[in-house]
């Protein structure tokens, strides 16, 4: 009898433990199923996500940039919105103002530190040199963020307009930190006439510097990170046109295989860096987003996805790809003392993938965003609005 009672007691205890464990598990799953309420976005990157940084420093890109949506120059190297703009829309946040833009900016919902031409690793060239890049490399963008973080709280305490235009202290730990940078680090090597192997050789150093910045943002309270890998640069006219590509080095889509292979190598190493960061930053939720695969799918199967042109630029002048490094989109020439626009936009950018030989059109950006927003191309596979949840 005692044996039966003991056995029954053990079974009841076991059931109790299992039940309690299940309740805890459900509670955890329930927490993870809640949408994240991101109060702000802080973005770091290059022209793929620049909403006015470089133009604030060096002047706006003129007509026809911005015409498809803003109907005027909006600091974006696109005919309209960027991936970052669609991210903000999805999270019910206003479009991000550039940190460098002093006119009409509201930083209560975040700030954008990206500038066109930026690299992860600082460059030894000036912006206006051939192959020159932005002076605002990722480490500089972090310095700006660090200063922004500190000084906004000093001024916010003064109240008034400062309280309206600047973020709350607690928003920094609840914000989403987005990254879209690395493409120019690869391009910089090509502009210096480096070989494919030479470019690959410095990728580990580039990513060491990337990890350093992410760690520093974490130390400043950042917890949710959304990191895009780099796209298929071998499908961009400015790479294809400026660098010698042998006929047998093109794939069926018309993209330069060697340059895409380097991009894939960079992405493999970036993903490994993200894995390492997850091990070191125990409270961070880090999402790696494979935009390369999405962009390549769009370019290689453009007609299937509703686009008519996949490589040829919508806005430009001359050549197979409608791209000319000397006369970019919106370029003019003087004829008999009169300026004539010769690098004009195409009639319908909404059916063209490439905007100006370097960047995607708004329509292409929207298509890419629609593929990544639900987490289908993310590691871990979680949607954008769940990116605050850490997954083991």
Structure report:
Helix 8 (196-219) packs parallel to helix 10. A six-stranded mixed sheet has the order 2-1-3-4-5-8. Strands 6-7 form a two-stranded antiparallel ribbon. Helices cover 40% and strands 8% of the residues. The chain folds into two domains: 1-33; 38-310 and 373-386, 3-Layer(aba) Sandwich (Rossmann fold), CATH 3.40.50. The radius of gyration is 24 Å and the shape is globular. The chain is of the alpha/beta class. It starts with a helix and ends in a 13-residue tail after the last strand. It has twelve helices and eight strands.
Q: Percent range for helical residues?
A: 40-55%
**Terminus-to-terminus distance:** 46 Å
Identify the overall geometry.
Answer: globular
CATH class of the largest domain: Alpha Beta
- Major pleated sheet: 6 strands, mixed
- % residues in beta strands: 5-15%
Strand order of the largest sheet: 2-1-3-4-5-8
Please state the CA-atom Rg, rounded to the nearest Å. 24 Å
The computed structural class is alpha/beta
Family: Belongs to the 'GDSL' lipolytic enzyme family.
Protein name: Alpha-L-fucosidase
Keywords: Glycoprotein, Hydrolase, Signal
GO molecular function: hydrolase activity, acting on ester bonds
